[in-house]
Amino acid sequence: SKPLQSTGRPEAVAWWTGHSRKRKPTLTNVEKFDMQWNIWWGQLNPSWRREVDGEMAREEHGGWGALKASGINGLFTVMVCLKWWKEELGDSAAVGDWVHAVADVTWV
Length: 108
Prior knowledge:
Layout: H1 11-18, H2 30-44, H3 75-89, H4 95-107
């Protein structure tokens, strides 16, 4: 299968792949990572999932296109990003965005 698109992905993913995925990147700005991840996730999803209010639709109305990417360059990378994000958040109050992201990835 083909890899996920790299356009718009978080800078940390580019760093990680550039270092042969051997070390976890340092997320110096969790808010920036949150924003970058959400933009990338939105771009990866098919257009039928995007709704006017910015939420992602949870009724299937078409194919999955770019998200049909398996292996180390596929949804695995999305999951690794969620892991990094949570590790940086710890028990902070900002965990809400992460929980929302996990719920959406789980739905997919």
